[in-house]
Design a protein that fits this description.
Subcellular location: Cell inner membrane
Main location: membrane
Mean pLDDT: 82
Radius of gyration: 30 Å
Membrane topology: Multi-pass membrane protein
Strand order of the largest sheet: 2-1-3
Family: Belongs to the GSP F family.
Number of helices: 15
CATH class of the largest domain: Mainly Alpha
Structural class: mainly alpha
CATH topology of the largest domain: Receptor-associated Protein
Domain Type II secretion system protein GspF: 73-196, 277-399
CATH architecture of the largest domain: Up-down Bundle
């Protein structure tokens, strides 16, 4: 049966002045779709509006809605529902109090859809960029079974744990990359501005410069003459990488496969993917979602296309009657410990609990690997900085040392 289109009413901010039931002068700020709606809302609250005017913002920047915003929303809504606050009122409170205006607008749009007769799952489905299939499936299961507050709590816990592991992985990858980028920037500045000053000083010596110094001088000339070409090549390469990564499935598959083979970093990416698989499967199975349907969402939530391909194959095998543990074993991508825990869960009827234990174990493993990687990279980064910056300093002072020896 075709579903009716859901209209999301955009709300604006209005300043108002009026009198309360006792005749005292009051004023404030209220959000609403238009002036008439705000006046009606104020009258329901016992305020007689005298003047209502829309706030005009000349320069308004919209903040992007992040996965962290969705995680916070999940926890806040779960808390409100568990406290017995009705759904519409919970969305009103959470939406009005959110720090991100874009997220606040989204939540109030969901509330408007629910007030028009839609379910929470159907309302959230109108925002597929922010609420994935897993989120929608769990909310729908909660609404159908009458355990929405329990399922919202599971969603909130799931989101918080996945966000935590994502931040750990990003920390492991971003920190060394940022330091190395800064080192190259400092090196570029020295080659462009500092080395030419030394070169003009060396020209007055009237002696041959050391080979290492000449190499740095020639490199400085290249940077000064072709800096625009270097920027164009670097910028073009970054743009092409991002462009094709988003649009080419083959490139994404190659990047994810190569990433898993990197020393240390590959181990972090691998174990974080296993943890996401186990955590997602545990959450969905505990919510009563059928295994085959759950694997569809698990594949999308894995975060790695190599795992996604393997899980999709496993889903077909499970749909044909094969046990999940055998499908995992045949995929040759999951660790033996995870396969054995799933086997125990299937035999004992506690698959969700066993998967949760697997997720806890590998999340701790990722934490330990990230800490170890950070400790390992610190001396390596210092060595890179020493070679780049220290090498330039030595190259510039070699002629001075040579001149001193000649004197």
């Amino acid at each position: 049966m075709a579903q009716a289109a859901v209209v999301v009413v955009k709300e604006h901010e209005f300043q108002w002045e009026g009198t309360d039931r006792k005749g005292a002068r009051v004023k404030g700020v209220t959000q609403g779709p238009n002036e008439n709606a705000v006046r009606m809302q104020l009258r329901r609250q016992g305020v007689n509006p005298i003047r209502v005017r829309k706030n005009i913002v000349l320069f308004k920047t919209k903040r992007k809605i992040t996965s962290g915003d969705i995680s916070i929303f999940s926890r806040q809504l779960a808390t409100m529902m568990a406290a017995g606050v009705p759904l519409v009122q919970s969305l009103e409170i959470v939406g009005r109090g959110h720090e991100n205006p874009s997220m606040s607008e989204l939540i109030l749009g969901v509330k408007t859809n629910i007030e028009s007769g839609r379910s929470l799952a159907e309302s959230l489905a109108q925002y597929p960029l922010h609420f994935d299939d897993l989120f929608i499936h769990l909310v729908d299961a909660g609404e159908r079974s009458g355990t929405l507050e329990t399922l919202l709590d599971k969603i909130a816990t799931y989101k918080e744990k996945t966000e935590k592991i994502k931040k750990k992985v990003k920390k492991a990858l971003i920190y060394p990359s940022a330091v190395v980028c800064v080192a190259f920037i400092v090196t570029g500045i020295m080659l462009y501005f500092v080395v030419p000053q030394f070169q003009s000083l060396f020209e007055g010596f009237g002696a041959d410069l050391p080979a290492f110094t000449m190499m740095v001088v020639h490199l400085s000339h290249f940077v000064r003459d072709f800096w625009w070409l270097m920027f164009a090549v670097i910028g073009g390469s970054v743009f092409a990488f991002i462009y094709f990564k988003k649009r080419s499935l083959k490139m994404r598959r190659a990047i994810d496969r190569i990433g898993l083979k990197f020393p240390v970093v590959g181990d972090i990416l691998y174990k974080s993917a296993v943890a996401r698989f186990a955590r997602t499967l545990s959450t969905m199975f505990a919510a009563g979602v059928p295994l085959v349907e759950a694997l569809t969402s698990v594949a999308k939530a894995s975060g790695n296309i190599v795992f996604e391909d393997a899980i999709n194959v496993m889903k077909e095998q499970v749909a044909s009657g094969q046990q999940l543990q055998l499908a995992m074993q045949q995929s040759n991508i999951f660790p033996n410990m995870a396969v054995q825990m799933v086997a125990i869960g299937e035999e004992s009827g506690s698959l969700d609990q066993m998967c949760a234990k697997v997720a806890d174990f590998y999340e701790d493993e990722v934490d330990n690997l990230v800490d170890a990687l950070t400790s390992l990279l610190e001396p390596m980064i210092m060595a890179v900085l020493g070679v780049l910056v220290g090498g330039l300093v030595v190259a510039m002072y070699l002629p001075i040392f040579k001149l001193g020896q000649a004197i």
